Amino acid sequence: MIEVRVPDEQEGTKAVVRAWLKQIGDAVAENDPLVELETDKVTQEVPAPAAGVLTEIVLDTDAEAVPGALLGRISVEDAPAKARAQTEPETQDATVSEDAPRTTGPLPLQGHMETRLSPSVRRACLQNGIDPSRIAGTGRNGRVTREDVDRAVSSATVVSVGEPATAQPRHFSAQDIPHDRMRRSIADNMVRAVSEAPHVTAVFEADFSAIAAHKSALAAKGKKLSYTAYIVKAAAEAMAVAPAINGRWEQDRIAISPTIDVGVGTALGEKGLVVPVVKDAGSLTLEQIGARLDDLTRRAREGKLERSDVSGGSFTISNHGVSGSLLAAPIILHQGQAAILGIGKLEKRVIVREVDGQDAILVRPMAYVTLTIDHRVVDGHQTNAWLSRFVEILESWRAA
């Protein structure tokens, strides 16, 4: 008997079982996708560790899956016979072609169409008053998945349980947006974050003139960098004046991370937000940080991030200004962090500065920067010291 366990790489994220891709009694080959796990950031398939027959499911759909937890068991004894049995043709008189078009009407129950429903699908059908036989399944052998139910609810094309086939469809507002698992996870994390940690936010202003000049000089040499690369680099260097910013609250101590691992919020449109992590940013050059950001951002938007790409962050940056926000106070979502940096929209503003001993009115590219801290870990003077150093680094960047 082979055990299937939750992967260990799951730092700081809460995983749940999204769906089993095989059912008890199914034959599986080694490395076959077996079960899907999902956090608020990524979905991960757990492969079968060996060929055999799935004999037990320990954690069913929607169960919390902590690192190392037992998901199920595979028997390797009767794998060949079981595999042959599953590939033999059906003996019933009527079969359904896998190539036959699907409709929203009742599905045939004979042949090899899959009629078993997962607990998640059964629960969703009951909650929404939906007859699953009237949903066109897109899963294995036409099986109805949770996504099929959600799609049916949002499009209001299914008939309620117990109603005759001629009943009118359920009515929903055209503006209604059904919750997906990522939205529910984000909501749960938001509530937990603000209830557990006392949040305080400090606001500074930064002049990006030096950064803009440096970017232009590099661009002239054929090297393109985003403002975010400079922000990550400056944040990593500022940790020297207030190391606790790169720490976390523990019941008996403030634990300081040995590396500066910076998460950068990346919007995915209607699909929410992910936070890929630039690992050990304190040891990287500006150009190396820029290259890693480009890679992480591209894979985030293509849905190709690995669990390791979004785990292990010790500090987070929310560059909310890219969507037009001037000022915001993001909250600390990661339980293993003590602070989050917010960067507002970069825009030209009129400021007063002393030039040659005289006050001068200048037009400069400015942005509000905020640092929201867990007040259990960091006090006001550390917060202001960190922000002062961060702004100083940005404003004194030397030309390339």
Please provide a written account of the structure:
It is an enzyme of class 2 (transferase). The protein is an alpha+beta fold. It has two domains: 2-155, OB fold (Dihydrolipoamide Acetyltransferase, E2P) (Beta Barrel), CATH 2.40.50; 189-395, Chloramphenicol acetyltransferase-like domain (Chloramphenicol Acetyltransferase, 2-Layer Sandwich), CATH 3.30.559.10. 25% of the residues lie in helices and 24% in strands. It contains eight helices and 18 strands. A hairpin with a 4-residue loop joins strand 4 and strand 5. The longest helix has 16 residues, at 181-196. The radius of gyration is 27 Å and the shape is elongated. Mean pLDDT is 80; it is low at 82-113 and 156-169.
Give the count of helical stretches: 8
Fourth-tier CATH superfamily name of the largest domain: Chloramphenicol acetyltransferase-like domain
Largest beta-sheet details: 7 strands, mixed
pLDDT < 50 runs, ≥5 residues:
82-113, 156-169
Assign an overall shape: elongated
CATH class of the largest domain: Alpha Beta
What is the number of E strands? 18
Give the mean pLDDT. 80
- Structural class category: alpha+beta
CATH topology label of the largest domain: Chloramphenicol Acetyltransferase
> Which percent band covers the strand fraction?
15-25%
CATH architecture of the largest domain: 2-Layer Sandwich
Helix content: 25-40%
Helix and strand sequence? EEEEEEEHHHHEHHEEEEEEHEEEEH
